[in-house]
Amino acid sequence: MKKTAAAIVLLFALAACATKPADENDVPSLVPPPDAAAAANPASDARLAEMQTSMTELLERIDVLNARIARLEASSSSQPETRVAQAPPRPVEPAPRAAEPSQVVVPAPAPVRAAVPAPVSGPLQNAAIADNYRGALILYGKGRMAEARTVLQQVFDADPAGELADNALYWIGETYYAAGAYSDAMRVYERVTKEYPEQNKAPDAMFKIGLTFAKTGDLGMARKTFDEIIRRYPYSTAASSAKLELKRVKY
Fold first, then answer.
1. CATH number, residue 200
2. Could you say which of 10, 49, 93, 241 has the lowest number of CB atoms within 10 Å?
3. SS3 at position 238
4. Rounded to 5°, angle at Cα 43 from 42 and 44
5. pTM for the structure as a whole
6. What are the tens digits of pLDDT across the range 99-143?
7. Which of 138, 195, 204 is nearest to 177 (CA)?
8. C-alpha pair distances (Å), 196 with each of 21, 135, 164, 203
9. pLDDT tens sequence across 11-35
10. What's the farthest any 2 CA atoms get from each other in the chain?
11. How many CB atoms lie within 10 A of CB 154?
């Protein structure tokens, strides 16, 4: 009888345990394990680098368009209005007499020359340069400065008079600046300001010259450079950055 009573008590205890609400610690966690979060980091880093590259390209295009608009406005305002004088009518000349059959001279056929293939130029070359330029910016965004510098040098050498020449040269300076090679960066920035003073990257290069002076401790030259940017390129984004820099640091 005692054994039966003990068994009944044991059954009630097991039933109570079975119907007991789950403890808060038994609820499955919705937070991914640390390994999953760590695995997601490379993908997010790659996406961030891609977004930074796209933003850089957009800013580059805006700078190019602003420079073109400024040049068009300057040329239209400097050219005086001219009127084209109407030329007097030419007198009608009598038709030449046909030559006699004995006077007709038949020209000798021109020698046939083999066609020489022309070098790749025009839109195809420009498209290839633009693709290399974009690839260099992607390498720069990933921190691969030496590789980016090599590709940018190729872009510059392919067309030193093209629209991307000053951009390529400027970003070569940026690779040196990011690596802490300030003397090399300064040399390249100065080339941009001297060889392409009217292009869209000249104000940015001058601003980075000022920052380089500040990095190397020459605050007097830094202030002088910022003032020069404001004077020469008053409507550029570099001039706005120079004004902020002058307020931020006591030069």
1. 1.25.40.10
2. 93
3. helix
4. 90
5. 0.57
6. 454 554 555 555 545 444 444 456 667 889 999 999 999 999 999
7. 204
8. 76, 23, 11, 10
9. 444 445 444 444 444 444 444 444 4
10. 151
11. 14
